[in-house]
Design goal:
Blueprint (H helix, E strand, L loop, with lengths): L20 H6 L4 E5 L2 E4 L4 E4 L2 H4 L8 H13 L11 H13 L4 E7 L2 H18 L7 E5 L8 H6 L3 H4 L9 E4 L5 H4 L15 H9 L4 E6 L15 H12 L2 E5 L13 H5 L5 E4 L11 E6 H7 L19 H16 L2 H17 L7 E7 L2 E6 L8 H12 L2 E2 L1 E3 L2 E4 L7 H17 L2
Parallel strand pairs: 3-13, 5-6, 5-7, 7-8, 8-9
Antiparallel strand pairs: 1-2, 2-3, 4-10, 9-10, 11-12, 12-15, 14-15
């Protein structure tokens, strides 16, 4: 017997995140179950998941190995203190992450989310320079349109104005690179756009302005997701890496959406052949099932902390749930599921079909650009004059009515399906989006 609650009798108490609360509560979209590629809505309809939840359920829903691991772990060891105590699965998961990480990234700090991973990496960067006796390096550089979660560090280096403007002075000592969206030159690029590598040179300009010896780290999303899918121009990330190397600046990749197979490789670092000094991850780490994040750190950074006198805590940072038993068990089962099902390879194999399907929407009503990489797609719509975001949100509502979950940000439709997607699902997803666009005002 299902104990499923399909519609609560009062929706007022829950203040929903990143949601138009009043609008939602007038006409709620309630999901009550999920399996494979589909959600089930409260009214019993099946909804094709075109977004892997929120870029996180890379192996699809209700994966038996992950479900079983969580159930078993809850019964065996529900919680262990995270400070000055350990439990085996956190160590095991860290080892397995190091096994799939780019060479040299061999230490892992666990968190509970992408936002916490970002702030953890920023803190480690500043503290790293300080423990090396280079405490003048405190500045952080992010990028316009960047999304690095919602904590104070993340919104400070982030560049999405709506996420920043209500929250006061934020961190000091932060500057921003220009974003890489160049529709006049790069519209309808398939994969990485040709133009824009030179935008990375602004890092040198910014570093020179402040003096490079004051810059602790640069953080970028290798592929910017939340701002509406911006693929890095060819050569751009390589240039950032070189400038960082030349000036002793740490490079942090925020791989919260690109990690765990989204591009058809374990991490974007592998896909682009650029190894950062730290990688921020979350979401796909546990297939989105249990909150967990992980910051992967190069040996030199970790080791710099390890010369503190014996018995001292080397890094005064951590969370009650850092590497918690159930999250660790879910993480191990998730990595095993990815491997057993060959999902990273599958994403790479499907990417050309995905690209062709997406770009078949060129010329449809309202479409002004299409962008793709791996199993990520962005479809930019012409905004309604004076009413930004309205057209894309109408597409989202209409897709949901037609049984397809898409995500919109601004006037951009962002797609990121589970890596288990079949070609027939891609046809349905893209076909539905095309039909909707034809009928939108
Ligand atoms: C690139 C990036 N960084 C950080 C985050 C924040 O992750 P969380 O919502 O788990 O805090 C996200 C979430 O979408 C993200 O896309």
């Amino acid at each position: 017997m299902s104990n499923r609650l399909t519609m609560p009798n009062d929706l007022r108490a829950f203040w929903m995140p990143f949601t138009a609360n009043r609008q939602f509560k007038e006409n709620p979209r309630m999901l009550v179950a999920a399996d494979g590629m589909y959600y089930t809505a409260a009214d019993g309809r099946k909804i094709l998941d075109g977004t892997a939840g929120l870029w996180c359920c890379n192996a699809g829903h209700n994966r038996p190995k992950i479900v079983e691991a969580i159930q078993k772990q809850a019964a065996e060891l529900d919680y262990a203190p995270a400070f000055q105590m350990g439990h085996p699965k956190a160590f095991e998961l860290a080892n397995r992450l190091v096994d799939i990480a780019p060479k040299g990234m061999d230490h892992v700090f666990f968190t509970n989310s992408g936002s916490e991973s970002v702030d953890t990496a920023l803190k480690i960067a500043i503290a790293y320079h300080r423990v090396r006796g280079d405490g003048a390096r405190f500045r952080l550089i992010g990028r316009e349109r960047g999304y690095h979660g919602v904590n104070f560090g993340g919104i400070s280096v982030g560049g999405i104005v709506t996420n920043r403007k209500h929250f006061g002075t934020l961190l000091t000592g932060v500057d921003h690179l220009p974003h890489t969206h160049m529709p006049a030159k790069n519209a309808y690029s398939k994969g990485q756009p040709e133009h824009g590598a030179e935008l990375a040179d602004d890092l040198l300009k910014i570093a020179t302005l402040h003096d490079p010896s004051t810059i602790a780290a640069v953080i970028v999303e290798p592929v910017a997701g939340s701002t509406g899918v911006l693929i890095p121009p060819l050569g751009y990330l390589q240039k950032l890496r070189k400038i960082c190397d030349d000036h002793g600046i740490l490079l942090i990749f925020d791989e919260v959406i690109t990690g765990y197979g989204r591009l058809g490789a374990p991490f974007a670092a592998d896909y682009f052949g650029v190894t950062p000094d730290m990688m921020v991850t979350a979401k796909g780490l546990t297939n989105g099932v249990i909150p967990m994040g992980a910051v992967l750190v190069k040996k030199d950074i970790h080791d710099a902390f390890m010369s503190a006198p014996d018995g001292t805590i080397e890094l005064f940072h951590g969370y009650t749930y850092s590497g918690s038993p159930i999250a660790s068990a879910a993480g191990i089962a998730t990595l095993e599921t990815y491997k057993e099902d060959g999902l990273f390879e599958r994403a790479a194999e499907l990417a050309p079909y995905w690209q062709d399907a997406l770009h078949s929407l060129k010329g449809r009503r309202h479409v002004i650009d299409i962008r793709n990489l791996g199993l990520i797609g962005g479809i930019e719509l012409e905004p309604i004059a004076g009413k930004p975001t309205k057209r894309a949100f109408a597409a989202f509502l209409s897709a949901y009515e037609k049984g397809v979950l898409i995500r919109t940000t601004g006037d951009i439709i962002a797609l990121s399906p589970p890596l288990i997607i079949e070609k027939s699902h891609i046809d349905t997803l893209i076909g539905t989006v095309g039909d909707i666009l034809d009928h939108l005002d």
